[in-house]
């Protein structure tokens, strides 16, 4: 777990002197964007434990990580994948004006190496296509494959004619049973693949399954919307 946002109690000058002659102070709630990183260690119960035994959980606060996302941000959520945390998004309050707080939203992706306690920014990489020579060879194989398929279809048609009778018999009006048509299977919906990050947001939900990262929801603000 990385960072977050909260309001902590702090003392501030009240603008007037106390009875003792010193500066009076008051307690206020100060907004804080945290940059700490925590690791929840989950230890499964031993094999001889009762069936209803619960795992042991323990929060471990890590030292300040190297190469932290900059600027500091809240709402940057993280999930676990093969010894690292995968972090996405977040929001940074730029400045507070009379109209409110102006915020900068992010759609950057980071990996936090748990053992090295270091962050690395992840970028999208397009898959490498086959070399041009392989593409030409593939096209030639495709043409040869189509030619072979046409030849095999012709041989099948000739065999069907011979089994039903001669071509002359067909000319005399003998009908051939048409080949059974294969029903069209419903087409699988194509998955849209883009090489752009999702829209900037904070507090998105993350999950990893079978080396695939899923991002769900989140919040984005613009003006009063």
UniProtKB/TrEMBL annotation:
<dbReference type="InterPro" id="IPR052588">
    <property type="entry name" value="Kelch_domain_protein"/>
</dbReference>
<dbReference type="InterPro" id="IPR015915">
    <property type="entry name" value="Kelch-typ_b-propeller"/>
</dbReference>
<protein>
    <submittedName>
        <fullName>Kelch repeat-containing protein 3</fullName>
    </submittedName>
</protein>
<feature type="region of interest" description="Disordered">
    <location>
        <begin position="123"/>
        <end position="151"/>
    </location>
</feature>
């Amino acid at each position: 777990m990385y960072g977050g946002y909260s309001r902590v109690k702090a003392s501030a000058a009240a603008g007037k002197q106390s009875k003792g002659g010193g500066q009076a102070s008051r307690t206020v709630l100060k907004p804080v964007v945290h940059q700490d990183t925590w690791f929840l260690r989950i230890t499964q119960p031993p094999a001889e434990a009762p069936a209803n035994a619960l795992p042991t959980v323990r929060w471990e606060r890590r030292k300040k990580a190297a190469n932290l996302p900059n600027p500091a941000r809240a709402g940057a959520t993280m999930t676990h994948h093969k010894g690292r945390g995968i972090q996405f998004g977040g929001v940074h309050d730029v400045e507070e004006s009379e109209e409110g707080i102006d915020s900068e939203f992010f759609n950057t992706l980071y990996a936090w190496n748990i053992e090295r306690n270091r962050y690395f920014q992840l970028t999208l990489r397009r898959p490498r296509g086959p070399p041009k020579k392989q593409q030409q060879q593939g096209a030639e194989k495709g043409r040869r494959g189509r030619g072979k398929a046409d030849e095999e279809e012709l041989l099948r048609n000739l065999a069907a004619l011979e089994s039903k009778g001669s071509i002359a018999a067909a000319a005399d009006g003998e009908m051939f049973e048409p080949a059974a048509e294969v029903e069209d299977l419903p087409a699988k919906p194509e998955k849209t693949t883009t090489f752009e990050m999702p829209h900037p947001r904070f507090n998105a939900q993350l999950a990893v399954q079978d080396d695939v990262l899923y991002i769900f929801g989140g919040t984005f603000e613009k003006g009063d919307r």
